[in-house]
Write a structure and sequence with these properties.
26% helix; alpha+beta; single chain
Amino acid sequence: MLATWKACLVIALTVATLLLSTCSQASKPAGADESAAKAAEPASASEPVTAKTAYWEMYKSAYKWAPDLVLLRMDPKEIPGFKNEGGKAALWEGTFASPTRHEYRIFSYAVAAHSPDIYRGVMVGDGIQWAGVSREVMPVPISAVNADSDAAFTTATGDAAAWLKKNPGKQLTSFQLGNGYAFSAPVWYFMWGDKKSGYVVYVNATTGKVVKK
């Protein structure tokens, strides 16, 4: 049973990654034209934020694009000069999809600008054709996310504490919020190291507890 469970998770994550791997298109500030997009704001003293804080900033623009939007995924990214830690990030990307438009877009929220392609505030990516909800990639209802990224990170690092002690220096290599048929609720996914010899933790985003294998 354990092997089957793990296999399902690997499949789900692999398909999700393949589905969203084409999202690395150029973005521009929400509501800006091409000329304004070139004038990036200077970096500020803002601090990294949690996923839900960034979500609500992105939601404003995403809702204008598609009122029927659904969230598929949240990923933290980095901005030079800022340190992502404690489950907070200086830059977050949210993958939003529209069932009626049959497309999805990558929205992002940055606490500061960094030339040449990171702008402070919300940035909007191009629309990409979307086949719709599948068992592997399901919507993440934000109302079900009671455990924000900082709380989930604390839980995950607690679960991984013994392994991290035995493997000093191993970095967090994957951190995202998603949902799939293998789970009863949206989950936070954490991985230290790599899939072959690393450590993976799933945290139920509703209960805030580790998903037991």
